Amino acid sequence: MAHAQSKPNWFAIVISAIVVVVLVVLGVVVVWLNNQATSAGPAPESEIVNSETGAISFGEGEDTVATYIDFMCPACNAFEQSYGEQLRTAAEEDRITLEIHPIAILDHLSQGTDYSSRAAGAMYCVAEEAPETALDYMQTLFANQPAEGSSGLTDEQLAQHAGEVGADAAADCITEGTYKKYGVAQAKAHEIRGTPTVDLNGERLDMQNQADFKKFADLLG
To answer: Is residue 110 a contact partner of residue 100, using CB atoms and an 8 Å limit?
Structure first.
């Protein structure tokens, strides 16, 4: 006696197809979310900002001094107080090209407010909207530096300080967090593990090393 021909289980086939589609969609969503989390976001556009390296540049000297700073970092503030005016003068006189890199590596020290990221982003906003005030704004942020472990300045306070140096146009950019992710991405791109970090003509200096420090000091006169 011949056996009856088995019929395909269409219900099982349809369910399997649906499961495959759902898994594919979930995979796409996960990849998209990961990309969003690690994305640098939009790059600032300014005559003084290199959107590829993140450098905010001043002066046109033959030698380039690049500094990597975190606005929550007390050592960066001390560096600014010690050498900021000399670096600024050397750049204004075109004895050096000064590249400022606002980065964010200390977000974990601001009670979950991501102050380092927000302050770095604010610096880029000012560099974009009012480039002539960027160095003044940097000095103002250090003059009003919050303590490590505090919540940091609010976005409104960051915008207020921008207004104090004549960068009112940067207010919306700051409060909207337009470049909040940019400083984190630049820290990773340049492999910054501590601040301040100083490069001279592309060479990373060890400021605790006498020979390296002399290279830096000689440029400043």
So the answer is: no
Can you give the residue range of the structural domain that contains 135? 56-220
Work out the average pLDDT over 4-22.
Answer: 65
Which has the closest alpha carbon to 129: 87, 95, 157, 163?
A: 163
CATH of the domain at 153: 3.40.30.10
d(CA 150, CA 108): 10
29 has a pLDDT exceeding 60:
no
SS3 12: helix
Rg (CA), the chain: 25
**Domain-embedded: residue 89:** yes
Q: CA 62 to CA 65: how far, in whole Å?
A: 10
How many whole angstroms separate alpha carbon 113 and alpha carbon 109? 9
Total number of domains in the chain: 1
- 28 pLDDT tier (thresholds 50, 70, 90): very low
Residue among 91, 193, 93 at smallest CA distance from 138: 91
Assess if residue 21 is contained within a domain.
Answer: no
Q: Is residue 10 part of a domain?
A: no
Using CB atoms within 10 A of its CB, is residue 87 exposed (0-12), middle (13-18) or buried (19+)?
Answer: buried
pLDDT at 38 over 60: no
- Tell me: pLDDT of 32 over 60: no
pTM: 0.82
Structure tokens at 151: 């919540």
- Check residue 80 and give its pLDDT: 97
